[in-house]
Amino acid sequence: MHAAFSVIFLTTLIGAGQGMFLAMYTGQLYALAHLLPKQADAFYAAGTLIALALLVAGLGASFFHLGRPERAWRSAAMWRTSWLSREVLVLPLVMALAFAYGLAHWFGWTRPFFNLGESIPVDPTLLIGLAGTLASFALFLCTAMIYASVRFLQEWHSPLTVLNFTFLGLASGFMLAAAYSAYLGSDLVAFFGTWAVIATLVALFGRLAALARNAR
Fold first, then answer.
1. Are 54 and 169 in contact (CB under 8 A)?
2. Among candidates 25, 70, 17, 66, which has minimal Cα distance to 43?
3. Which residues contact 132 (CB under 8 A, 6 or more apart)?
4. Which one of 48, 58, 102, 159 has the minimum C-beta count within 10 Å?
């Protein structure tokens, strides 16, 4: 299977955007658990803006492989049976939640609703980020299943396709978060970089397993 460049750009940009958003939220969770230094709200807001820009760029790339772009809205009509339709529906949801997450941090909407235990405040950013995390993993699944669900593409018809899409996206997003942290002089470079290496190794294992499977 030789994918069009527009599809490659679509999956790479959107995957990196999802990974970047998940990196920002993961950093916030670790800070709330007092496992990392707390960062300013502007750090999460700007990082999420980068993630959102990647998601928008990926959405733009998707229009280049549509035969009739003016009918793109029809691609969501078969959501009950089509993974492509589900992807078309989940992607805007991820973008909306990423935007809301960044906006909440930008305006400092971090007043807790309640506390978990004695030290974990649950504020709007935490709840929006959780929803965005669930939506992001759902989007990884939808994108991967577009290919993994096609039986006659036997090289792709495997759970390893889902694993590869997910961990390659996480690896690129966390590495981008490490570069972003380094640019700002944040002390989260090692944290994001370590998780980027872990995700890359898992993706490498998944890819090697897929190649071994396909060779048989």
1. no
2. 25
3. 21, 25, 94, 97, 98, 100, 101
4. 159
Here the tokens at position 97 are 């939640």
Beta bridge partners of 116: 120
CA–CA–CA angle 215, 197, 128 (5° rounding): 105
What distance in Å separates the CA atoms of residue 126 and residue 108, rounded to the nearest whole number? 12
Q: Residue 114 burial by CB count (10 A; 0-12/13-18/19+): exposed, middle or buried?
A: exposed
Q: What is the pLDDT of residues 45-71, one digit of tens each?
A: 999 999 999 999 988 876 665 555 545
d(CA 168, CA 15): 8
Whether the CB-CB separation of 90 and 139 falls below 8 Å is answered with yes
The pTM score is: 0.90
Report helix, strand or coil for 116.
strand
Cα separation, 138 vs 164, whole angstroms: 14
Residues 152-176 pLDDT 10s = 878 878 899 999 999 999 999 999 9
pLDDT in tens, 128-153: 999 999 999 999 999 999 888 888 87
